[in-house]
Amino acid sequence: xxxxxxxxxxxxxxxxxxxxxxxxxxxxxxxxxxxxxxxxxxxxxxxxxxxxxxxxxxxxxxxxxxxxxxxxxxxxxxxxxxxxxxxxxxxxxxxxxxxxxxxxxxxxxxxxxxxxxxxxxxxxxxxxxxxxxxxxxxxxxxxxxxxxxxxxxxxxxxxxxxxxxxxxxxxxxxxxxxxxxxxxxxxxxxxxxxxxxxxxxxxxxxxxxxxxxxxxxxxxxxxxxxxxxxxxxxxxxxxxxxxxxxxxxxxxxxxxx
Amino acid sequence: xxxxxxxxxxxxxxxxxxxxxxxxxxxxxxxxxxxxxxxxxxxxxxxxxxxxxxxxxxxxxxxxxxxxxxxxxxxxxxxxxxxxxxxxxxxxxxxxxxxxxxxxxxxxxxxxxxxxxxxxxxxxxxxxxxxxxxxxxxxxxxxxxxxxxxxxxxxx
Amino acid sequence: xxxxxxxxxxxxxxxxxxxxxxxxxxxxxxxxxxxxxxxxxxxxxxxxxxxxxxxxxxxxxxxxxxxxxxxxxxxxxxxxxxxxxxxxxxxxxxxxxxxxxxxxxxxxxxxxxxxxxxxxxxxxxxxxxxxxxxxxxxxxxxxxxxxxxxxxxxxxxxxxxxxxxxxxxxxxxxxxxxxxxxxxxxxxxxxxxxxxxxxxxxxxxxxxxxxxxxxxxxxxxxxxxxxxxxxxxxxxxxxxxxxxxxxxxxxxxxxxxxxxxxxxxxxxxxxxxxxxxxxxxxxxxxxxxxxxxxxxxxxxxxxxxxxxxxxxxxxxxxxxxxxxxxxxxxxxxxxxxxxxxxxxxxxxxxxxxxxxxxxxxxxxxxxxxxxxxxxxxxxxxxxxxxxxxxxxxxxxxxxxxxxxxxxxxxxxxxxxxxxxxxxx
Lengths: 257, 156, 424
Fold this sequence. Notes:
Chain A has helices at 3-13, 18-25, 30-35, 55-63, 137-140, 167-171, 193-196, 203-207, 224-231, and strands at 41-46, 76-83, 88-91, 104-106, 112-114, 120-128, 147-149, 155-157, 178-179, 186-187, 213-217, 247-250. By secondary structure, chain A is of the alpha+beta class. Chain B has a two-stranded antiparallel ribbon. Chain B is mainly α. Chain C has a two-stranded antiparallel ribbon. In chain C, helix 4 (101-134) runs antiparallel to helix 6, helix 6 (160-193) crosses helix 7 and helix 7 packs antiparallel against helix 8 (257-296). Chain C starts with 7 loop residues before the first strand and ends in an 11-residue tail after the last helix. Chains in contact: A-B, A-C, B-C.
């Protein structure tokens, strides 16, 4: 697609958001992408870099119109605290929308738990989002074809066609799906499809000050993020389910599921 | 066998035909098997474009630098240079037209997201300068003493 | 408030989007389809396997299974977040999903049952048209005549050859109906058994377990309802009150109280024998599942064990296996079985199967995908909006009551206790 055509089609489809989209066109990797039909979006999370500020969660909620106070979220950050006697504490209050500012670990009905600093052997944060699996279990089980994979590897939901049966929510091994409290259909991370398709970055990756989240084109071997995925030791979450997740992690360990 | 036994079958055939005719009008024309095959790519094609047209709210620091050149250049040199403008200033939306002015988040809670001291030995969080929010000037906004755009303690 | 948040209590580490998304309506869905399938299998015992002694209850089971049919769909519709789009399942079925088959299997099954009823009652329909057409009609009778004229589909031939054809067709349909009924329900088990993300659900035994418990619950329900309606009819007959089950409109009341009593006991106790056989199969399979899980003890066993043996112990071992299986089984085994005891045992069996559905559906969601936390379902009793009504006690009672309402009206058209003396 030529740039002129792109702007033209943008004008046709988005009259209201024309200003914003043309702003993104200025930085345009779109042409590069258009010349390379071999496009497969992927994601890299560097858990070593994450500090648990939760700015990604906040940005995601605002960017994607997920009601800010609703207790569901397209992306979240988990905290892991391991102690000398082998115990593992995990929490994720409000999906870490407000970051981690307290040492208290939120164990829901079991209350708040304080782990003393001197007992801690390991502690870290793990951001999570949809893995945009190569073989998504959620898509396989949708009875009406309301959720699907795009050619460039993103899993999306058709809000006008979803019947709200919840089968995809049950089928996802990663718990990334939920019912949108306003639209009343299944909802999940779109990998900011509106941003990345127009040459931008995902809202969460852009909001992260530490570079813990990165978008990649897995087919482009010159892509610096793809290079990291190819050359460094990365893992994926719960590979045993055979979904072939395309969100790669640096610094995973056994306790992260 | 008597012919009347087929009558229920005719009713069923009529019913199926009715459903199929209704289906022709009900299902959008672009609904079908797309690039990823029947298992993963069965959907209404125009929905992809609908998602592409979803309005963006965050515009990136480069967008800010387009007008606020000076600020952006000086802040980029400070320790907070890695923080995207919109993390504190809020999503740009269609600023400067709509809204004309962004609502800046100056709250103590915002700073504590990184600077509340937590013991996280296998995380970069440990490398950040942190305070205990209960003892460190509690009740005062951080921005009263610290300059968020140049947080270096020498310049306080 | 997010869907599921009202009735979910989280404990320890649970992912932010995890809630009990499938609540009471999804417990009722396999329960109701199970009743449909079970009732149909019972009716087929007579038609296909020629268990002559079950003739009376078989006919009742057939009509009752038709009354239950729309109710099997109801919980699904009530549970959908977009109920108006439920039709999409038929319009753009995505067959890699177990649910997509629902529309088609359900329709097929509905057509089979309806056709079978048509063949069984065709003679009666034609006779009714003649009877009602000849006499002075009042009130409902005019409407009934019209309905009969429509559903007769114009087939008025009552020659012996025609009736023989009806009989053959019934047999064929009942024969096809059994696998379809099993499929309708077995695939409800498949819906759960194929969810690979859920450690408790994922087992290939699930469809078979579901079919067996379905037949058990269907037979039990037929015993209870048959006995109940017979008792009601006896009571009404003795007092000349026919409005409870107004099959007198159809002109079928030609039994004496004593005759009815005898028939009643005979049918219920005999059916109870079949109930026992299927109960053994169902319990064996369920125990096999638990033993196998414990023996292989894969990664998820830690959390599944905690759910089965600790958090849900009372629900599983006391309610489901104790009160719902062992106790009624002993009651049915003891010699000198009376209708009353068979009924009581059947009620317990119905409760036991309901608890089994509950423990599978709710139990399967009561632990986090990460195996590090738990969720508890607190059923909304007093509804404060549509959602808490649908997914709470109100919705459950609505679903449970509907088949009886449907049966009440259906019984006016197809009298389930209609007794024709020719061997069919």
